[in-house]
Amino acid sequence: MSPKRVLQELADQHLLDEQQRVVIQSVEEQKLFSVHWELRSLLYAGILLFTTGTGWLIYRYIDQIGHNLLILALAVVCAACFAFATRFKGPLSTAHSPSRSPFGDYALLLGCLLFLTLEGYLQYQYNLFGTRYGLVTFLPAILFLTLAYLFDHRGVLAMGLTALISWIGVTVRPLEFYFRGNLKDMTVLLSAIALSLVLMAGALVLDRQRIKRHFTITTLTFAGNLLLVALVAGLFNFKEQDLLFAVALAVACVAFDWYARKEHSFLFLLMSTFYGYIGVTYLVFHYLHLRDEATYLYWIVTGIGITAYLSRSRKV
Amino acid sequence: MKAYNETWVRNKHITEQAARWQRQGLFDEAKMQQIRENYPVGFHESNGFIEIGLFVFSIVAVSGGYFLLATLLSKLFEVDLFYHFFNIGFGSAIGFLAGHLINSRKHYRAGIDNALIIAAVALVIVGVIGLFPNNMPLWQYCFIGLPMILLGVWYYSDLLLTLVAFGTLTVALFDFMLEFSFGKQLLPFVLMGVSAGLYVLARLYEDRDELVYWRDNFILLEWLSLSLLLISCNYYAVRELNYWMMDRRPAEAPEITWAGLFWTLTIAVPVLLFYLGFRQKERPLLIMSAIGWGLALATWRYFHPLFSLEVYLAVNGLSLILVAVFLIRYLRVPRAGFTDRPDEDSPNQFLINAELLASVQATSGHLGSKDGMRFGEGDFGGGGSGDRY
């Protein structure tokens, strides 16, 4: 049904009077076609392509003439981006305070991505941070988190959190830096758990203080996934402590379930259900050694059970 | 007679449109309430995240049931016929269960029903196809399955089934054309013709009153057919497919017949889509034309590289930024019916989340590029940050 037909239908049913019908019809006829999100996606894609391209470019022609010029140009663009974002920064506030320019947020994002490129290059070429690899990720993490709060930018917040999560891996095991491989190491695992707890506590405290409350869900999603992945990994990788990890996972899942209900957030409900199911399934198969038929029965029972549970939670 | 209450589907569409007008301030909440009362929608409200969970765990339960029964009856399956009838029977039972839940629990695309519908249709089709001899060409199986899938689409208006039907049709045409000696040459044109035809069909019927039950299916069909159109006219795609279908492959994909024509189409089709999209103000046409331009550029670069990939990325990224900035500034005041002001149709939250994922991906990429480190993106998967659009 076209909007025109819906309008006709409502008028036929005497739900709209003639005047309303005429007004709505003229609004529909003069309706502009909004390309707001298309253009922003284009801008976003451009920024990502540009930073990826330049990020590779500076290593490719590292010893050639013009290379320093490229670095200089990138540094100038990076500084210009930060300057632009600062010039149009919204007023400092604990509430939502967007940039006064439509390009402010994008300039900040471009500036941050270029900063990462340049910082990486300085470490590669001049060994700026020496062997303190942790600083390479810790510095941008702190910078981005600060900028995110100052400029009210969720994208930069996500970047800062990503860098922060990298940092625990880097500091503890700089040479074997891989998500799954890393969580076989108890130190990394415990750092991940500790970091996620600190982040979650921080997010909740800031939420309570009503400081940038729209950031809470981003931080909690990041930290929550990190915590739950770490606990599941602990359950899989450390057989001796599996009871401990199982209890911790159960507590975390119950906590997320409780929080989801309190905040009406379906994402956290889904997270706690998925990670909890993985944990329980692992324990069941690890300890009970189910035969084929029992396995299928387990799928039926749990599948129906969780479906019923989620169905009932549709209106958290 | 359809799976879902047709009046509710129609009412849902009407109230959603009315709610858009109300958000624009064209009438007040009391009027909106009155419209809601006149057009009741009995379906249960649901939520995207919960639907994902419901879909996954319904599939888990159905698989459990299927394999348990199959294991218990495995002795019977020594006769193939029993196995095929078991599939048909189990699929039908799932179909009945879906119908029961849709009626009693008032589900509408709520995850559970989607999962059960897909499982039911898939099992019935596998069972029926099993009854046919097993040395037939692929396209014949596809053409046996297609009417059943379409019947499913007609009855359930399910979007996943629509996708499957489209895929089946494409595979069938593909395989069918290769039966003929001239088929390989003709294939791209057949696919182009079919996708263009399906697009026109979808556009003609999407707004029909009596077809409002399948409105979303028609819209999905528009996107799918435009995607197929872009692929089937793309020089790279045609050349590579030609290469893969050769009996004895040389080291490199050879030049194709009518190369000039395909180069022209690779560039002309996105231009045409843009022209039509601009004239008719059609979002799928405009977005697919932008993707088509990206594809055309990537194809050109692949065969005629002037610079290294890095230079292309940087230069094209910069051009994209400049074009977007220019357009955003240019459209601050409406021009030719276009505006940069967001409207009530914008998928706001979805895009913000996509942007967040893209930033995470990009950050991990930069942090990782220096010494082969990869971290941080583990939980989230790719955000599609490399896409050209």
Automatic annotation (TrEMBL), chain A:
<feature type="domain" description="DUF2157">
    <location>
        <begin position="9"/>
        <end position="155"/>
    </location>
</feature>
<feature type="transmembrane region" description="Helical">
    <location>
        <begin position="294"/>
        <end position="311"/>
    </location>
</feature>
<feature type="transmembrane region" description="Helical">
    <location>
        <begin position="218"/>
        <end position="237"/>
    </location>
</feature>
<feature type="transmembrane region" description="Helical">
    <location>
        <begin position="156"/>
        <end position="175"/>
    </location>
</feature>
<keyword id="KW-1133">Transmembrane helix</keyword>
<protein>
    <submittedName>
        <fullName>DUF2157 domain-containing protein</fullName>
    </submittedName>
</protein>
<feature type="transmembrane region" description="Helical">
    <location>
        <begin position="106"/>
        <end position="124"/>
    </location>
</feature>
<feature type="transmembrane region" description="Helical">
    <location>
        <begin position="187"/>
        <end position="206"/>
    </location>
</feature>
<dbReference type="Pfam" id="PF09925">
    <property type="entry name" value="DUF2157"/>
</dbReference>
<feature type="transmembrane region" description="Helical">
    <location>
        <begin position="130"/>
        <end position="151"/>
    </location>
</feature>
<keyword id="KW-0812">Transmembrane</keyword>
<feature type="transmembrane region" description="Helical">
    <location>
        <begin position="65"/>
        <end position="85"/>
    </location>
</feature>
<feature type="transmembrane region" description="Helical">
    <location>
        <begin position="243"/>
        <end position="260"/>
    </location>
</feature>
<dbReference type="InterPro" id="IPR018677">
    <property type="entry name" value="DUF2157"/>
</dbReference>
<keyword id="KW-0472">Membrane</keyword>
<feature type="transmembrane region" description="Helical">
    <location>
        <begin position="267"/>
        <end position="288"/>
    </location>
</feature>
<feature type="transmembrane region" description="Helical">
    <location>
        <begin position="41"/>
        <end position="59"/>
    </location>
</feature>
Automatic annotation (TrEMBL), chain B:
<feature type="transmembrane region" description="Helical">
    <location>
        <begin position="114"/>
        <end position="132"/>
    </location>
</feature>
<feature type="transmembrane region" description="Helical">
    <location>
        <begin position="49"/>
        <end position="69"/>
    </location>
</feature>
<protein>
    <recommendedName>
        <fullName>DUF2157 domain-containing protein</fullName>
    </recommendedName>
</protein>
<keyword id="KW-0812">Transmembrane</keyword>
<feature type="transmembrane region" description="Helical">
    <location>
        <begin position="309"/>
        <end position="331"/>
    </location>
</feature>
<feature type="transmembrane region" description="Helical">
    <location>
        <begin position="138"/>
        <end position="156"/>
    </location>
</feature>
<keyword id="KW-1133">Transmembrane helix</keyword>
<feature type="transmembrane region" description="Helical">
    <location>
        <begin position="81"/>
        <end position="102"/>
    </location>
</feature>
<feature type="transmembrane region" description="Helical">
    <location>
        <begin position="186"/>
        <end position="205"/>
    </location>
</feature>
<feature type="transmembrane region" description="Helical">
    <location>
        <begin position="217"/>
        <end position="238"/>
    </location>
</feature>
<keyword id="KW-0472">Membrane</keyword>
<feature type="transmembrane region" description="Helical">
    <location>
        <begin position="258"/>
        <end position="278"/>
    </location>
</feature>
<feature type="transmembrane region" description="Helical">
    <location>
        <begin position="163"/>
        <end position="180"/>
    </location>
</feature>
<feature type="transmembrane region" description="Helical">
    <location>
        <begin position="285"/>
        <end position="303"/>
    </location>
</feature>
